[in-house]
Amino acid sequence: MKPSYLAWLIAAACGLPVAAPVLAQQTPVTTTSTEQTASEATDDIEEVLTIGSREALQKAVQQQRDAGGIINVVKKDDMGKLQDDSVSDALQRIPGLSVERDQGEGRFIRIRGLAPDLNSVSYNGTQLAAPEAGRRAVALDVIPSDLLESIEVNKTLTPDMAAGSLGGNIELKSMTAFDRDGAFYSVTTDLGYNQQASETNPKASGVWSNTFGLGQQDKVFGVALAASYHDRSFTTDNVETGGNWDLDEAGLEEFEQRAYAVNRERTGLALNLDFRPTADGDYYLRSLYSEFADTEIRQGRIVEFADPMQAGVAGAGEIARELKDRKETQEITAVVVGTEQRFGDWTLQLEGGTSKASEVQPFAIGGAKFTQEFADGLSYQGTERLALQGPAAINATAGYELDEVEVSDADTEETENNVKLDVAYNWLQPSYQVTFKGGVKLSQREKTAREDIFIFEDFADLGVSGLSLADYAGADVDYGLDSFGPGISAAALWQMLEPLAMQDFRDDVESAISSYAIDEDISAGYLMADIQGDAWQVIVGSRYEYDERVARGNSYNDESGEFNALTASYSNARWLPSLVTRYDLSDATVARFAYSSGMVRPSFEQIRPSYYLENDDGDLKAEFGNPDLEPLTSANLDLGIEHYDENLGVMSAILFYKDIKNFVYEADVAGRPGYESFDEAITYINGDDAWVYGLELNLVHQFSGYQNWLDNFLINTNLTFTDSEATVDWLDDGSLMTRDIPLPSQSDTTANIALGYETMDLSLRLAANYKSKYLLELGDIEDSRYDIYEDDNVTVDFSAKYLVNEHVSLSFAANNITNESYYVYTGQRRYNAQYETYGRSFTLGLQITNW
């Protein structure tokens, strides 16, 4: 980067007048214009077909520059460059965003330090349903990135956006046939390899689109198809304590070693139709289908010490050899049908959308345990990577006896149906233009969850003769962190259970408490004005949302042995005002300010009316949801400056602040009004105010002016600093105690850097992603020493793509080059809560495109 460019950023940040530097124009890559309607002309830019990242970044930067609010954009041409197969992987490289991983793969997205359930995900304007029971957050590893044309992250909330987020909204944009000029197709095949599992992983995807004439009219009807399939097998080595430390004695009470064998299949389909019979009318259909089948076999060894144990000291305890074997399938579908009609200065858009998500886990072994007592000799070594020490019998099959088998059959389903009408009027004046816009939206959302749990035990009384682990032993477990011995055969267990009548072993209490249904009806309307002058823009307005909720669940009273059906109703109304502004300080520099309001409804797990009351030797204990929880709201402030150069480049600095009301957390309300006689009453409550603030820095820069190979370099980097605080409270001998905590899932620092080298035929990119530690959960609300933190994490990826000819390209990718592990600790880093390794992955690819 040239010194003048850095000097501009420093001077601009200090408010000093300085001429903005302009970078030399780079020779462009071959492009082709896109067919556009009048309504799209201001939103879309020239379609660029290239093997590299440069042009994809150029389109994204231009869209961000033209936006009224603060947005970040990932274009299709840039998705997957680093083998970012799912939407979550692609989004982790955007400023202020970080990813929550599952088995090393990105699953949920945090925006500006706010947890995934505090953000929303929509598909062409329709909010997506969430497949997981209890959650509103959409698992974005379900959706292949191949199916999308772009992803937009809106960090400022405007009145025409549906409520449902505090951090921002992730908008998934589908491709259309009119995005490209004429017929287009692209076919990609990849072959991946996971080093730790020694497994090959095939992937194939294809895109086809074309426009067709009708009568004397050309390019009236458009069809776009996309399909993707990915079969990935890998292993995970894990050791975790789950926070089971006695920190007063610095002793470990329990830990578990786990070896995962995982297979994940992703299947995605998209069909998008467009009909444009006149210049003033569009009709469209957008559809998405995605299936994520996750098969997981987990061999575990659970070590429970008789007394809290320090490393290297031997003592008594129990070891349980455990098997979990399940296949979980998640599906997300979405269909949007609509029309946009233009009548002079008026525009009318009518749209209906539906989204459905489900998660099915049929008859899975939730836990099969073989246990053995050891009078002495059990110990452990290590801090992050705990290793078991003991007699040779710990790895043998003899001595372990079948204790319990838990089987579960579960499914959850969520549907979201909506219809909306938007009307806009353009009022053109000599020095400015105003677009008045208003609309209404009606939504219906339903979430149902069911789980049947079956507990098999006392096998000798059932006439089962084979009770030793030797009767159910499988192959030796491939576990990279320690010696393990033979695993447990799922087939042998199912064969043993087959003669038993399943319903005789149903746990009626757990099954009833786990099942619920929640219906939400939301009526919304908004009014806003978008005022644009030559060098400025103001968006002002407000949204009104009214929702009614009916929740149904079950209660169980351990004292009386009675079940009861529960029904709870709730209603809420909110005004959500916003003011979003931008001002062009020069042709290259933009200043932005925004005030917006956000609202998030509590998660389904938090508001379900399930209730469990237990009398534990005279101690009255209860665990229940809270259907009366208030929604979380936030007042958001954004202030930023952006500088764009004429070729490819942007520097930006954005300050943000969020004042959050009704923060929700899990608490023990025993002793509080209504629960005076309880010894323990665990539920969710609205807490005191919380806040989060931070600074986002972003730089995209193409090197130029050297007149040699250095002009082929491109750098894309961002850095976000965040801080937050929330207050939790509890009763201690009748006195209300409090302590301050950071918001869960909020990293103080997140950063990305990608260095690219691109010629007409070759594209290389090396990227690193960093996030600092963050609070994962409260281990003990009264004692900060037991808070669970996820440790700092850095991942490094590399990709290369070579254009063989104008139609064929070859690619190579290496992911997790440094073999970064996942580490979670309790209070201090030396107290393991969870440690996992996943290994490196490599991918070879071939792409054929008719560009």
Automatic annotation (TrEMBL):
TonB-dependent receptor plug domain residues: 64-168
Main location as per UniProt: membrane
SUPFAM superfamilies attached to this UniProt entry: Porins
A Pfam cross-reference name: TonB_dep_Rec_b-barrel
Domain TonB-dependent receptor-like beta-barrel: residue ranges: 397-817
Superkingdom of origin organism: Bacteria
InterPro entries reported in the protein's UniProt record: Beta-barrel_TonB, Beta-barrel_TonB_sf, Plug_dom, Plug_dom_sf, TonB-dep_rcpt-like, TonB_rcpt_bac
This protein's UniProt keywords: Cell outer membrane, Membrane, Receptor, Signal, TonB box, Transmembrane, Transmembrane beta strand, Transport
CDD domains: ligand_gated_channel
Endpoints of the signal sequence: 1-24
Topological category with respect to the lipid bilayer: Multi-pass membrane protein
Annotated localization: Cell outer membrane
Family classification: Belongs to the TonB-dependent receptor family.
PANTHER family for this protein: PLUG DOMAIN-CONTAINING PROTEIN, TONB-DEPENDENT RECEPTOR-LIKE BETA-BARREL DOMAIN-CONTAINING PROTEIN
Name this polypeptide is given: TonB-dependent receptor
Native species: Pseudidiomarina fusca
Lineage, broadest ranks: Bacteria, Pseudomonadati, Pseudomonadota, Gammaproteobacteria, Alteromonadales
